[in-house]
Amino acid sequence: MSSVRNEHVSPERTLSLTPVAPSAAEPDEQGPREECGVFGVWAPGEDVAKMTYYGLYALQHRGQEAAGIAVSDGRRTVVFKDLGLVSQVFDEQTLSSLRGHLAVGHCRYSTTGATTWENAQPTFRTTAAGSGLALGHNGNLVNTAELREDVAKLENRKRSGLRATTDSDLLTELLAAGAADLGVYEAAMRLLPRLRGAFSLTFADESTLYAARDPQGVRPLVLGRLERGWVVASETAALDIVGASFVREVEPGELIAIDADGIRSQRFAAPEPKGCVFEYVYLARPDTTIAGRSVYDTRVEIGRRLAEEHPVEADLVIPVPESGTPAAIGYAQGSGIPYGQGLVKNAYVGRTFIQPSQTIRQLGIRLKLNPLRNVIRGKRLVVVDDSIVRGNTQRALVRMLREAGALEVHVRIASPPVRWPCFYGIDFASRAELIANGADTEGVRRSIGSDSLGYVSVEQMVAASEQPRSRLCCACFDGDYPIPLPEEAQLGKHLLEDVPEPTSSGAASGDPGPLSVGYGAGEALTRP
Questions:
Q1: Average pLDDT of the residues in 246-269
Q2: Could you tell me what reaction this enzyme catalyses (predicted)?
Q3: Which residues are catalytic?
Q4: Among residues 187, 236, 231, which one has the least CA distance to residue 211?
Q5: Is 474 known to sit in a ligand binding site?
């Protein structure tokens, strides 16, 4: 028996909640948005719900729109999810009611589908055999339109009242349909090779925890060992939090199953590693390790190489906290210029359910960062940040530092210019809005108002990661997409928002009409 439960919203109702308001700190700046975090645990005798809660807490940086946990006790699966941060969605009473021996957890930032309760994960289906299937997905598929057609063709398909509009939901539907005849493991072995794009998955039925990673291994996924069980998670930092020891990465093209008989593994596709280099630059926690390389060490090394590529005479190196801090430390080490803390970050500014007033909005970046005037007054500053997307944050920051008394402001960026959108799980601005797409370095410098501007090169960034260039995806920097993209009408964040209802025979009725292309897809596909 399987069931879905949520204390906040009845699953029998089709209800769209108001999206969580974006940060008031910089309303006009859509920087690189993290994608999602996934966590799974199989551990009889442990409090798997609370363990998953802590695991998601460690992965909160990867997605702040929604969170959810599915728990199975061997007889039924219970899902609890809602919009908001992990700490907003779950409390002690809720967690204590989620009892079982295995769990799947997810924290979401949307890359396909709007911010609605229906689109929160884990997604859930009941198979024809009566078993439940819960799934969490980190990444983004590029053959979503093709999967939509496959779902529309399913015979005797019974839709619930919920209308999820995500690639993850389609994947769950197809997996549940196949599991009715083949079982989950064999259904996954048949479905996974047909998926195109980035996917790090954790999913489970009543007795077994599964994990799978796309053949390119775009997004990280790791396996950890508990004294009485196993853990899979997006980052090694989540293993540390729950006391699991790192065993290895889930390999590209690998499916893992964990149950009472132990752990088994099988390749569903030949590996073609293309890990996302932006995980090293920005996305992952600094205390995470990817492909054997410390993210923190990588960022410090990028800073050292940045100092070699773009030296400048200055009095103080300061980071834009927190993501710019390791690179700023490296820049100071590489340049010999003293490192200092010139900006104080308000740790409590983030997503909120309260819409900021226009007066508060006008405060802009000052809600997030405030200068230490006594530190920066009269100084020539090197300001190190992780990336520039639109340039609004850096423009406001340079102005604020000058007003606080800085003599010179030299901006150094610990990644190359972002010129292309990502289709594999990061939601950048559209290509037309990427400041580096329409201007060279001097043009960007003039736009943000700094005295000088320097980006680390792609070559030095890759070298700092200690990974071969051939094993990394640098598409957002060089436009070289390792996974082929379909035509522009089959791409976009809101591709599934206006899907026609299937007819009684299961086929979609009518022409789906023009499909909105999100985050610069058309621009990317017609690039010179």
A1: 97
A2: 5-phospho-beta-D-ribosylamine + L-glutamate + diphosphate = 5-phospho-alpha-D-ribose 1-diphosphate + L-glutamine + H2O
A3: 36
A4: 231
A5: no
